[in-house]
Batch of 2 targets.
Target 1
Amino acid sequence: LSFLLFVAGELLLLSSVILLFRVVCGCPARCHCHSSSRSVDCSRQGLAEIPPDLPPHTLTLHLQDNQIHQLPAFAFRSVPHLRTLNLYNNSLSNLAPGVFHGLQHLQVLNLTQNSLHSLESRLFHSLPQLRELDLSSNNISHLPISLGKPWENLTVFAVQQNRLQQLDRELLESMPSVRLLFLKDNLWKCNCHMLSLKLWLEKFIYKGGIMDSVTCVSPHTWKGKDLLKIPHELYQPCSLPSAGTGTSRVQQPDPGSPESHGLGQRDRSECELKPKPRPINLRHAVATVVITGVVCGIVCLMMLVAAIYGCTYAAVTAQHKAGRLAQTEETVKLEGKEPDDSSPA
Ligand SMILES: *[C@@H]1O[C@H](CO)[C@@H](O)[C@H](O)[C@H]1NC(C)=O
Ligand SMILES: *[C@@H]1O[C@H](CO)[C@@H](O)[C@H](O)[C@H]1NC(C)=O
Ligand SMILES: *[C@@H]1O[C@H](CO)[C@@H](O)[C@H](O)[C@H]1NC(C)=O
Ligand SMILES: *[C@@H]1O[C@H](CO)[C@@H](O)[C@H](O)[C@H]1NC(C)=O
């Protein structure tokens, strides 16, 4: 019995030593800490929240393949030097404002394969040094005009495999250094509001940017078409994006309220692309009427002139003929008289 007690005591001591060791070294249970690279790997641990006691000098934090579904504000306050944060394949459905506060040095943020459906405006304002932002494979249907302060160094922006119908040019303009764009597999609605995106993307590619594709899902006319291959002429009924008016107006209402959604929808449907713009047809019609009128007028005038000429000619001829007839009659009479005259002779 005393031996067993001794063993138990030893085990207790050992485990407390291990615990002490962990606290001193600052590596949370269920994570692996690599001191040389200052990275902490907590992936595939079935975590529901961020482990406490992360080493304060951590540069890379792997939290992928867990079940984290919520993050509090200032969630990463204890690791202010973080450069890379990987939250791939978790269960995040929304992100509270201020989640990323304090991550002044973060360069890579991977939020791929979560269940995000919308993002707060200015959510990433506290990440001025961001270089790569991956939001792909979520359920995002709307992105605000502003996500971060102008991101001087952001080069990769990925939103493929979401439910986006449109993307504001202003958002892309806040990433002056972006070189890689992933946009495919969304619900792109290719109406007038996409014209400014189309123009922006054309310029982006011209300047050497690399992107996948924007395939239209609606309206029916453009289903399956690549936005960049729709000719400009077909955007004629759309007003050109002068200083972003109109586009931004539709986007501003709070995405949460169903009323604003309805308004946006109505605004958008009023602005559908027309394969055959009406103004041209109208102009054609007016031109046709004018030309027809002129031609008709000329023809009528000519007919009138012809008629007058005809009548005059006929009258003159008739008069002349009448004169000659009378003359002939006289001649005939005279000639008729002649035999009378000559008979006695
Ligand atoms: C996502 O993480 C879960 C564990 O939470 C894992 O079982 C699954 O294989 C991962 N999926 C992918 C695509 O890596
Ligand atoms: C962008 O990167 C450069 C070079 O690494 C750095 O000097 C600069 O501070 C960064 N800009 C911001 C806004 O962090
Ligand atoms: C995010 O993680 C996924 C899965 O590991 C990877 O395919 C993707 O390239 C990562 N994104 C970035 C920007 O590093
Ligand atoms: C994505 O959102 C749609 C509605 O917008 C919802 O029906 C669907 O269940 C969501 N999917 C996931 C994986 O959250």
Target 2
Amino acid sequence: MDHFLYKDGVLHAEDVPVAEIAAEVGTPFYVYSRATLTRHFRLFDEALDGMEHLVCYAMKANSNQAVLAVMAKLGAGVDVVSGGEYARAKAAGFPGERIVFSGVGKTVAEMEAALTGGIRQFNVESEPELARLSGVATRLGLTAPVTIRVNPDVDAKTHEKIATGKSENKFGIPISRARTVYAEAAALPGIEVVGIDVHIGSQLTDLAPFEAAYVKVAELTETLRADGHDIRRLDLGGGLGIPYERSNSAPPLPVEYGDVVRRTVGHLGCEIEIEPGRLIAGNAGLLVSEVIYVKSGEDREFLILDAAMNDLIRPAMYGAYHEIVPVIEAPAGAETTTYDIVGPVCESGDTFTKGRAMPSLAAGDLVAFRSAGAYGAVMSSEYNTRPLIPEVLVDGHQFAVIRARPTFDDIINRDTIPHWLEDPA
Ligand SMILES: *Cc1c(COP(=O)(O)O)cnc(C)c1O
């Protein structure tokens, strides 16, 4: 459920008409709903009720500082995957003890920043990383709390680019090598093993792969405890999917996911961490765009929008589906047209969808892409020198720009011309 509803035929973000935001900030733009972000965090928090737990928002889904501030105020933890995200977490007010650090390629500089700034745990993904972290922590006279990410060789049954739990993926250590690697970790100076980490992929629409992975984690917990390790924390990753296409899919609810967690690892007495990103931010955001032209091709109609693949790359990158709706609701029985919906970028890949039946639209009309709050703005670029589009946060009747659109001069002035290229005076 989200807070983007039609009221009297006009699409609203909470209590604000979307067209009012468009008039103030210009199109295209992203708009997020604080109430929806809050609701989604609480659903996960309540789903783990009765178990000691921390919901660590995976900020790579949407790392705007205002979104992070919403999460920090709710008492969330946060999952970061780079030094930049770690800096964002600190700037948003997350204390070190609520920040977990994931990722296959942590650098020495990133380890130093997290160790000195405070960290709940590093989710270590390889033996070389373990050795390097031991070296950095020892040099600083600090101890690095770690979980080791195991790859359970489970098929997440999701898009190949976001599946991470099969043995052919680059993530984690093979679960079959876990005992060896935990023994190595226990012997290393500057390392304190606190638990196990797993994350099998994103946009999972079936609970069975989670269940299969968590059963393996439960078995491993018993084995490692028998080996003498103090396994007291389980980080179960993120990945629960959202209904991009509402008419034909109903992914499991957080409460059902929570039941899987309880059933598989609830008896172990471990503190549970989960790292949802998409489910918290995805349906909390719209991308709003204006129709520039309706163009008739040989055998089809093109709807040419002012948003493009550089603003929302998911359709081009993953063949992803987004619901696209008119901001002014079409009356019942209104005429529909089948469109190819495209942006202005000079690539055929800049196509949001093909053959989509929609209420007929005209130049100047506004449309909204639903489910655009996660992996939207964060993956955008300035390709074709199209400025990064503004982000707006709505809270009830109020809204604010939370990232402004840069001017052309802002963009141009980021580049510098070497003095030896300049014309002699
Ligand atoms: C991407 C990622 C997440 C979040 O995944 P969602 O599908 O957005 O919930 C969580 N943990 C790790 C390690 C990730 O890489």
